[in-house]
Amino acid sequence: MLRRQFLQTLALSSGMLLPLSRNAFAMRASDAGPAQKKLVVVMLRGAVDGLNVVAPVGDGNYARLRPGIHLNRPGADNGAINLDGYFGLHPALADLQPLWNDRKLAFIHASGSPDNTRSHFDAQDYMETATPGRKSTQDGWMNRLLGALPGDQYPTRSLAIGPVMPRILTGAATSTTLASGAAGTRATLLDNPAVGSAFDKMYEGKAGYAKQYQEAKTAHKDIMSASMDKSAGMDKIEMNASNGAPLPNGFPGDAARLATLMKNDPKIQMAFIALGGWDTHVNQGAGTGKLANLLTPLGQGLAVLCKQLDTLFDECTVIVMSEFGRTARENGTGGTDHGHGNVMWVMGGQVNGGKVHGRWSGIDNSGLYEGRDLAVTTDFRTVLASVAERHLGLSDAQLAGVFPAMPKADGKLALFRA
Amino acid sequence: MQRSSRTFRLLIIAALPLALSVTAGTPNGDTGNAIPATEKTTLHVLNRLGYGPRPGDIDMVTKMGVARYIQLQLHPENIALPGSLTSRLASLDTEEASTGDLLREFNAARKDAKLEKKDKDGKSDAADEAQLKARQVLGRIAENTAEARLARAIESPRQLEEVMVDFWFNHFNVYANKGLDRALVSSYERDAIRPNIFGNFRTLLGATARHPAMLYYLDNWMSTVAGYQPRRGKRGRVDTTKQPSGLNENYARELMELHTLGVDGGYTQRDVTELARMLTGWTFNQRDLMRHDTRFTFNEDAHDRGRKVWLGREVTERGQREGEMALDVLALHPATAHHLAYQLAQYFVNDNPPEALVNRLAARYLETKGEIRPVVEMLLTSPEFMDESNYGSKFKTPYQYVLSAARASAIPVTNIRPLLGTLTQLGMPLYGSVTPDGYKNTEAAWLNPDALTRRINFATALSSGRLPLDTSKFDAGQGMGRKQLEKQADTNKRTNVAALDVEPILKTLGSSISPETVALIRTNPERLRAAMVLGSPDFMRH
Question: Which of the residues A235, B42, B126, B445 has an alpha carbon 20 to 30 A from that of A405?
């Protein structure tokens, strides 16, 4: 115990948070078998306006604070989708309504960071390292989580979709990036045997590169083979998901590809994808408009992902999060500025859904944080830790390694069905 | 700038004695002598002050001496541009067109496309034609802007100038695909960034603050006192259709967080709001911009005249002067000095820049009242910059990697789209950073397994003649959209471009490719060797 504390302190001071868990290499990936639990995290960079995603349409203050951009009440023209009589879902997310009705989708409102920064970049870092207020943390919580879970490390065990490795997956455990779009599953010149073997020799044993190079090769090979399965071919999926019409590029396509890869390659356990464009300072619209246009493909993509995962969805939890919320009041330019509390989304086969969780302290003047923003009543790490504990089975000790220095939650969050 | 004066300058400059600039303005006059005259040092300055060597560069710098080369690069006006580059730049209309002209052309094309679409529900030939024309206009503006940047970065002997243009553009990033910024970004770089890269930071800061590209990108153009309604029409009637009006904090926040003080610079949310109020009325009027090239307007009616307290000081009502005062204060704030010094040292020296160097640079910045050139000079002549442990210590960004490959291979690039597509694939599309923080330049940001193999793939395609760099009539279409650009970077196509010969590339790069790597390359078939040089671990760093 003392030794563990000492090591933990050491790890903290060196900027790396190493989960001190049971041996991460003790079990083979195959041992985990079909029961292996999956996690997909979608991060909305730029601070999505949570008060218009899950809107308190039943509160008179809501339309008063947002005269030009509030969602109409359910039933009205372009109105919100009724969730529980008080909250309404943005109509552009209609594709998620079946999941809500099936109780597979839950929201945690007024959640966020205890740190009050309104800097996108700091707040995103804090959300990805899960150490709000502490900038020296180098590794991300998904990476630490990966290290804490039983099973072998493997390049495709966790995928970050996009050209750069996000902070959340950076760290000691192995993970890989996968290009967005069709390029991620296409053959490259390195697949040519002569080219491949020439570069294999060149990178073999090269300090700083050998591991990365080998991981990329392995991941590419696996991804290619997982995407080859034509019985659940990409093209077919993309067509089905949109009733025959080709979907717009971007998230729905990536979500469909991800579902196929996860189904075909049981080694894939975690995936992360970040979507941008949520920084709606100007003319964000209400039931239609700029924010709606961003939410539509997001909703479509999530619905496609959940549907295409099929039975695997039972083993999967999807988290949607964003660095902070936006001002409760509409600003002077038909948009919203940087705020504080936001809404987190959780979906999955075992999720205690059809419910808006969290403690709601309202949006009247006295309830607002610094007189302008939604107050945070649930620490975002409480939500993440709940998923890690209840869905992925982490012990208390493991949780302490993945989410260090986390304050004890003041209420019980029942995000999963008992 | 008139063509005649440019030509004249080119003529006299070639003959300028360089000694003059070497003795001028070096704070520690003897640093030049301390620089070791090795090929490694030569390569270090070619790599860090520019985008790596072109054929003949090692000899050129060796003959001149590293100290003289640094001084010359600090005074780009003393370096002649080759005629091939000046004539190429002259052929790009975004180079000379006024900001207003570009916006007018852009708006006209967009309006036609919209009108036709509205009238005919987008199904008529006229609508198709208008759409096509709009795409062509937008595509041409985007391509010309990007071509000017890449042609200079690859061909200009004023390498440090191009590095500084990229550095400051990135520092004051605007995203080229946000609405009007498609038309404004070339003027932003040309008029706000480029003339001020070595000047006073306050001038650079003001030039970005008042440029319509920044005003538009970070929304300040719309930020007004609460309840403001614009006057419309000749008689100054107030428009009855109510527009949203009031404060928008976007620019004020990023101005302190990213452009000056830094996120830990000691300001509060209140300071953000108060600064936003001070900057209300800083805008541009599209009509005046298109008609008279008026890039900035202070709209007195939209300005918040109320009492403000910002960074602990009482701000008296002084209209535009309030914002100018704020820029004065921010430009010379010690937190700004430290923030800029850190960023420069991180870019030029090491991902984790030595603290002592950062402190010296910050002090130099404050002592010169925000002059950029003396700070950069101190940096490039510092023992830390010249320390051998920092040679090759930086992992190239995708931008640096692609440009250095183009320079080392000396492959003629008449069609820049495959390079733009590669940058997009590698996660660093040119003018494509959506967020105002721009791109990072650290190894942690850019080195990941897939990125490495994508670079190798690009190197192989470039070396085996698979990228259509020689023609703009490639069958993948001429659009400048993301998809079309990526198609042009598709490495699975064959083109007419010849494969590269390895020997000249090895000569150009000298000892940047280690003897072990060269030996290994030589054991491979001739057709793979150039690719192996440009795809080698040695070439990933600089």
Answer: B445
What's the gap in Å between the CA of B157 and the closest CA on chain A?
A: 31
* B162, containing H or E segment: helix B159-171
Q: Give CA B42 to chain center in angstroms.
A: 25
Measured on CA atoms in the order B534, A213, A129, B432, is the torsion positive or negative? positive
Residue of B nearest to A195 (CA): B528
∠ CA B80-B85-B88, nearest 5°, is 145
Residue in B with minimal Cα distance to A180: B425
Strand ranges (DSSP E) for A141-211? Answer: 158-161, 176-178
d(CA B51, CA B64): 19
> Is residue A1 within 8 angstroms of chain B, CB to CB?
no
Pairing between strand B282-283 and B297-298? antiparallel
- Whole-angstrom distance, CA of residue A214 vs CA of residue A210: 6
User: In terms of Cα–Cα distance, which of B437, B381, B392 is closest to B29?
Assistant: B381
Q: Which residues contact B217 (CB under 8 A, 6 or more apart)?
A: B174, B175, B178, B181, B436
Evaluate whether A297 touches A248 at the Cβ level (below 8 Å). Answer: yes
Is pLDDT at A32 greater than 60 in this prediction?
no
- pLDDT band of residue A16 (cuts 50, 70, 90) is low
Name which of B196, B200, B209, B208 is nearest B164 in CA terms: B196
**Contact predicate B279/B223, CB 8 Å:** yes
Tell me what ipTM this predicted complex has: 0.87
Strands of B143-287, DSSP E: 231-232, 237-238, 282-283
CA distances from B420 to B355, B483, B487 (A): 36, 11, 10
Query: What pLDDT, in 10s, does the model give residues B270-315?
Result: 999 999 999 999 999 999 999 999 999 999 999 999 999 999 999 9
Q: Which residues contact B343 (CB under 8 A, 6 or more apart)?
A: B171
The answer to whether B540 touches B513, Cβ cutoff 8 Å, is no
Q: Please, which residues bridge with residue B283 across strands? A: B297
Q: Are B136 and B106 in contact (CB under 8 A)?
A: no
Closest CA to B485 of B504, B497, B472, B499: B472
Q: What number of other Cβ atoms are within 10 A of residue A293's Cβ?
A: 13
CA A141 to chain centre: 12
Mean pLDDT for chain A overall = 87
d(CA B123, CA B130): 11
CA distances to B100, B236, B357, B459 from B230, in Å: 22, 9, 50, 55
CA distance A390 to chain B (A): 31
Distance from C-alpha of A187 to C-alpha of A194, rounded to nearest angstrom = 15
**How far is B308 from B304, CA to CA, in rounded Å?**
9
Nearest Cα to Cα of residue A159 among A238, A218, A105: A218
- Percent of chain B residues past pLDDT 70, beyond the cut: 87
| Residues B175/B180/B183/B189 CA torsion (nearest 10 deg) | -40
Cα separation, B456 vs B528, whole angstroms: 12
Chain B residue whose CA is closest to A139: B444
Helix (H) or strand (E) holding A50: helix A50-53
The interface residues of chain A toward chain B in range 80-99, judged by CB-CB distance below 8 A, are none
Q: What is the pTM of this model?
A: 0.88
Does the beta carbon of A317 lie under 8 angstroms from any beta carbon of chain B? no
CA distance to partner chain B, nearest, from residue A350 (Å): 33
Helix (H, G, I), strand (E, B) or coil at A275: strand
**Sign (positive/negative) of CA torsion B60, B64, B70, B71?**
negative
DSSP assignment letter at B259: I
Torsion angle, CA of A30/A205/A216/A219, rounded to 10 degrees?
Answer: -20
DSSP letter at B200 equals B
